[in-house]
Design goal:
TIGR02678 family protein, 3-stranded antiparallel beta sheet, about 400 residues, mainly alpha, Arc Repressor Mutant, subunit A, CHP02678
Length: about 400
């Protein structure tokens, strides 16, 4: 017979172990969700632990992504993949390596070629490029391998397929072929090629416009079906875009965001660990931990440091009389290109000892272009017209200074 004190202590220890185990399970589940959101796929042969973790939590992950965002989760004997379909497409969502629209065309047609291959099939580079050229010609498109730029585009497409593990390079290299059409290479087909492109819920010929392609599943033409579509579109934007402000939503979706914000915050916190906050400009999400999966702002790039310095400078200018700078009604700041160049010139003169050689030697105009692009990529600003850039009020949430630096307040 156990003493009461011993029993109580035993219960407390078991409860502590259970709580620790539960926390570890939740942490692992969040790791799986982040991996699915930020990678093309998870291959069993490369990451067995992660693959089997996803398999262990498959039903819960599948149900959450489908119920909240309408995203199908695929699990096969060799890979796990979340079919990610953005509501709004942005340039940064593409492949960084690609330079031309033609690169994507060749990439897609190369996948078409691979559909006719089975696992471990080997073929020559000249085989795939000739079949792609002939298929393009049937569709009224042109690929002429005598042109260097066409070969270079195809080489980029093949290199991307190789880096994704869809193609296995056995011998030779596509870069050599791009330089010299007489060169060749030998490839092997992997079993993953058929999972690269997303699957559409109906035949492509049945779609009438591009907007319809942004729905990953079919929705019933009923009130319940349309309400489900609203929820899915809202969650997908929060999952795939860094900052979605109130004026980014259309009139159909904004009421849902405003009325369901508590539910949205709870769901994203439990599954992904996101911390949500409601500000005047919109509902924003932050990730409190450093992680190797999603890319977070500020990034490791020195451009993020420049944006934070700009944010601090703007805050100081707004507090000065006769600065000529003011907040718009929505909290944004309208800047002319020359105004940002002036800010960067002052920052460069003040902090150049902390900057990289590239930034020290760049002109203010070059730095401004880089900063505009970086802010656009992170939805921290957008062009109003050719000469006016609207700085998002989200930037006002940050400030940055170098340690032990005195600022000139003139």
């Amino acid at each position: 017979m156990k003493r009461e004190g011993t029993t109580v202590i035993g219960r407390a220890r078991r409860a502590a172990r259970s709580e620790a185990t539960s926390a570890q399970v939740q942490e692992r589940k969040q790791e799986c969700a982040h991996a699915l959101l930020n990678r093309l796929w998870i291959l069993k042969e490369e990451e067995q632990d992660l693959y089997f973790s996803i398999k262990d939590h498959y039903e819960e992950l599948r149900d959450w992504f489908m119920d909240q965002a309408g995203l199908p989760l695929i699990l096969t004997r060799s890979l796990a993949k979340l079919e990610r379909t953005p509501v709004v497409s942005h340039p940064w969502m593409g492949f960084e390596e690609f330079r031309e629209i033609r690169d994507y065309v060749f990439f897609t047609y190369a996948l078409w070629y691979l559909e006719g291959k089975t696992e471990m099939d080997q073929f020559l580079l000249t085989d795939i490029v000739e079949e792609v050229r002939e298929q393009l010609a049937i569709g009224g498109l042109e690929a002429d391998w005598r042109y260097y730029h066409h070969r270079l585009s195809m080489a980029r497409a093949l290199k991307k397929l190789t880096s994704l593990g869809v193609l296995v390079a056995v011998d030779g290299d596509e870069s050599d072929w791009a330089q010299n059409q007489d060169k060749n290479a030998l490839y092997e087909c992997s079993p993953h090629s058929r999972y690269v492109l997303r699957r559409f819920p109906q035949d492509l010929t049945s779609y009438n416009n591009m907007e319809e392609l942004s729905d990953p599943i079919q929705y019933a033409e009923t009130q319940d079906g349309q309400n489900l579509r609203k929820r899915h579109r809202v969650y997908r934007r929060f999952l795939f875009e860094p900052a979605v402000l109130d004026w980014h939503w259309d009139a159909e979706l904004l009421p849902y965001v405003l009325t369901q914000r508590r539910s949205i915050m709870d769901h994203l916190q439990r599954m992904l660990g996101f911390e949500g906050r409601r500000y005047r400009e919109g509902l924003l999400f932050f990730y409190p931990e450093l992680t190797g999966e999603p890319e977070l702002f500020p990034t490791l790039s020195g451009l993020s440091d420049l944006i934070l310095l700009i944010a601090g400078e703007l805050r100081r200018q707004l507090n000065l009389e006769r600065s000529g700078m003011y907040l718009e009604a929505d909290g944004s700041i309208r800047l002319e290109r020359s105004e940002l160049e002036g800010i960067l010139l002052r920052l460069q003169e003040r902090h150049q000892q902390y900057w990289s050689k590239e930034f020290r030697e760049s002109s203010s105009a070059q730095l401004a272009d880089l900063c505009f692009e970086h802010m656009e990529q992170w939805q921290l600003g957008e062009w109003e017209d050719a000469n006016h850039f609207l700085i998002s009020p989200v930037i006002a949430r940050w400030n940055a200074e170098y340690a032990n630096t005195d600022f000139d307040q003139e």
